[in-house]
Amino acid sequence: MIGLKSMKQFLLLFFLPLCLMGQNNGAIWPDTDGVHINAHGGGILRYGKRYYWYGEHKSDNTSAALVGITCYSSTDLRHWHNEGVALSVSDSVGSDIERGCTMERPKVIYNPRTKEFVLWFHLELKGQGYGAARSAVAVSKSPAGPFRYLRSGRINPGRWPENIDTAAVALLRPENYKEWWTPQWRKAIATGLFVGRDRAGGQMARDMTLYVDKDGKAYHLYSSEDNLTLQLAELTPDYTAHTGRYWRIAPGGQNEAPTLFFSHGRYWLIASGCTGWTPNAARLFSAPTITGPWTYHGNPCRGEGAEKTFGTQGTFILQTSKHHFLFMADEWRPHHPIDARYLWLPIRFDKKTKLPYLEYQTHKAGL
Fold first, then answer.
1. Quick one: 124 exposed, middle or buried, by C-beta within 10 A (0-12, 13-18, 19+)?
2. What is the pLDDT of residues 208-258, one digit of tens each?
3. From CA 54, how far away is CA 121, in angstroms rounded?
4. Three-state SS for 16?
5. How far is CA 204 from CA 134, 163, 255, in A?
6. HSE-CB of 350 using CA atoms within 13 angstroms
7. Edge to edge, what strands does the sheet with 229-235 contain?
8. Residue/partner pairs of 135-142 with CB below 8 Å, 24 or more apart
9. How confident is the model at residue 24 (pLDDT cuts 50, 70, 90)?
10. How far is it, in rounded angstroms, from Cα 103 to Cα 147?
11. 3-state SS assignment for residue 62
12. Is the distance from CB of 294 to CB of 287 less than 8 angstroms?
C-alpha cells in the first residue's frame, strides 16, 4: 500500500501541476518575468530536479527563425524561467541556420555516455520554402545551452528502409505516376515510390520528435516522403547521427506532428493529418515494438472539439511519472505567430478498450 506521505508527494508532483497547467490551456502563459512563453513546437527534457522546455522562437509577423531556439526551465511544470536562446541563428550569409531560415520542432535528449545534450530539429534553408526538408543537430554540455551547431542534411542517403520490398520498388517507373492523388499513384507511394526517388540524396524529414528507449537506444521519428509517410530512424550511440537503419510507418497515410510514448506494454504514437496551419483530427497508432508493426486506432480525442484536436496540433508527450503522461500541443496563430498558445492534457487509458485517449476540460473543472 502507498503511504500517506507518498500519496501527498504524488498529489503534489502530478495532480497539482496538472490543475495549474489547465489554467493556461488556450490562454497567455506568462513566464516568471510575466512574458508569454515563446517555445512553440517544442519538447521537454527532465534533467536532475528541473524540466527544460525547448521551442521555436516566433516573431510578430513571421514564423521564420529570426532569433533561434529558446529554452525555459521549471521545477513544477507550471512556473517557467526564461533561460535565453539555446541555439542562435547565424548572421553568416549562406549558413544552414542563417537568420530567416526555418527551425521547427526542436527536441533535446541527454546522452549519459558522452555527457552531452543533443538537439535535433527540422531545418529549412533560407529562401527555399520547404524544399530542403533537412534535419539538423547541435550539442551542448549544459541543458540550457548554448548549443554548438554540427550539421544538417537529409537522412540515411543510399539506404533502404528495413521494412520495404526493394524488388517491388524497382518495378515502379516514376514517369507513370506524374499525376498525384490517383489510386495508382497512392498505391505506388505506399510501395515506396518516393523512398526510391530520394534514396540517393537521403530521405526528407520535416515534423519530428526524439525518443530514447528502455535499452538506451535513441530514435528520430519524422514526417517524410513529402509528408506522406512517417519514418523512424535509429540514432548512433552518441545520438548525433543516424546508423542507416530506418523503418516506414503508415506508408501513404499523410501523417505529421508525431509524438511517441510507451505504456501498458505497447508503444503509442499520436500524430495529425496534413492540413497546414489548420487543425484536424489526431490519429492514434500502436505497436508491440518500436519498429512495428503499427496498428491504426482512429482519433484518440473525445468530447467537444475532438474532430480538430481541440484546435491544436501535437508536438510532444512528456512522461511525468511511471504511468502518467502529458500530451503537449500548439494552438497555431499563423497571422500572429508569437501569440500561438499551448494545450497540455493528461493521457488517460480507457478501462474497456485499453486505448489511450485525450479529453479537453477547462481549468474550472481541473485536469
1. buried
2. 999 999 999 999 999 999 999 999 999 999 999 999 999 999 999 999 999
3. 11
4. helix
5. 6, 17, 14
6. 12
7. 208-212, 218-224, 229-235, 242-249
8. 135/205, 135/208, 135/220, 135/222, 136/96, 136/97, 136/103, 137/240, 137/241, 138/87, 139/240, 140/86, 140/116, 141/115, 141/116, 141/117, 142/117
9. confident
10. 14
11. coil
12. yes
What is the chain's mean pLDDT, rounded? 93
Rounded to an integer, the average pLDDT of 107-117 is: 98
Q: How large is the average pLDDT for residues 189-214?
A: 98
Task: Quote the Cα angle for 220-221-223, to 5°.
Answer: 130
Residue 4: pLDDT over 50: no
Cα(155)–Cα(205) distance, integer angstroms: 7
Are 130 and 124 contacting, i.e. CB atoms less than 8 angstroms apart?
Answer: yes
SS3 breakdown of the chain: % helix, strand, coil, rounded to 5?
15, 40, 45
CA distance 37 to 27: 11
Give residue-wise pLDDT tens across range 165-187.
999 999 999 999 999 999 999 99
> What number of residues does the chain have?
367
Q: Quick check: 53 and 46 in contact, CB under 8 A?
A: no
